[in-house]
Amino acid sequence: MDERVDQLREDIVLFTRRIRTKRAGHLLTPTQLQALAHLDREGPMSAKTLADLEQVTPQSIARTVTMLEDAGMVSRTVDPQDARASLIAITESGHRMLAADRAQRSEWLSAALADTCTDAERDLLFIAGRLLRRLADVPDRGRLPDSAGPGSREESLMTP
After folding, report:
1. Cα-Cα-Cα-Cα dihedral sign, residues 39, 43, 44, 49
2. Structure confidence by residue, pLDDT tens digits, 4-29
3. Prediction pTM value
4. Which of 33, 88, 92, 120 shows its CA 20 to 30 Å from the CA of 60?
């Protein structure tokens, strides 16, 4: 494997760990935050759809949704397409918490960019961000070793 690829992966993990420390004073887990973010971006959805987006088991997403519902961050309503299922939606409280969390992280990142990077370096980072988003959408080419697959420690460290 190319050492530069290893270094880039490590750099991304370190950055992700650092920006995660800048949360807005709540006790939500990264998984709970990510679930809220999906609901915010995509709108109400079934637990199965949310589990697929999170790449977790239905049992895992059920625990996450229950915790968020208990905290008043999401609500459930009957799915009009399937009365046996429910749709999960972010609540106003969930929106406010997510907005505060995003603002806290963006404020830190903005200050870090201003204090540390030149204009050209900031432009390169903005381009790199778009490239990383494109890479995030690349389909898998087969099964990765279990140590790097969905639910692994390394993957959980990198989930936005």
Report:
1. negative
2. 999 999 999 999 999 988 877 777 88
3. 0.74
4. 92
